[in-house]
């Protein structure tokens, strides 16, 4: 008899498995349909001996001291601040758009205050900001929107930015200084020995039993458990009874090159050229020394593993139908990106899992007190 059956060994499932086993002394069965733990953060050494991320680059960053402190129990860190360049007009320029970007693109020598005025002269002020196009055009104008965002967004989502929720492009800020870091979070690091090693340490507990290559539907009737934590697609759990929630997927094309380096930064975006959106070179991320280098091209596509929930109002309404079904279930928790149909960063998934654990603890504490009152044992000597 397991106290918890947890479906999915990515961040959400693994953090909850560790907390329940370590803090609450619960017996946990953790299952995953893939042949490895760590979910989409899984990394491994390729044939050349270079540490690569199987499901595309995962760059850790957070403003949460709680999340960083928690993960620090299971890994040492390598300081790393991610930088991204965009291939535009025959040159590589910093992304997000900053002072250097504009000066390079237009052959100018603006100061920060002059750049603010430059953006204001280009911006198309809008009364309402509803779409991804609105977000960008209202800040930097149409020309920069078309250079940096329109093509990239069309490739990534197979939709025009005017059809997408404002949250998509709101994730990428515009700066008036020379800060060329992709993220500005307080904590920016990579697990020193990789994500998979971090997960192995997280799940190394006698109360945790792991089954890989296992679909939960094949074992759900065979396993004795008290409560379920589901981190897979919520529509799959309910047998798609209202229809499938739409996702974008990605095809990854890996290459190992017989050269020391391929590009000057970890990632280069290609907003307007080629079928791929970006190329990532893994040695920048890991700091690994190697005479060869491995890179990955990302080709967005409609079919395949679900990576990105598509942020449109009708998709949100469809998710809410499933959410209402989920709310009626007892002893069942839906946690993580797929189970809540939200595009979370890794740290946000960890935070959600830690929050869910606190909720579970609170519920169990309340139930224990209720049980004592019901049986008249509370307050006796």
Automatic annotation (TrEMBL):
GO terms for cellular component: cytosol. It comes from the Bacteria. Keywords: FAD, Flavoprotein, Isomerase. Its cofactor is FAD. Residues 147-343 form the UDP-galactopyranose mutase C-terminal domain. Pfam families: GLF (PF03275), NAD_binding_8 (PF13450). PANTHER family: UDP-GALACTOPYRANOSE MUTASE. Belongs to the UDP-galactopyranose/dTDP-fucopyranose mutase family. This is UDP-galactopyranose mutase. It comes from Pedobacter steynii.
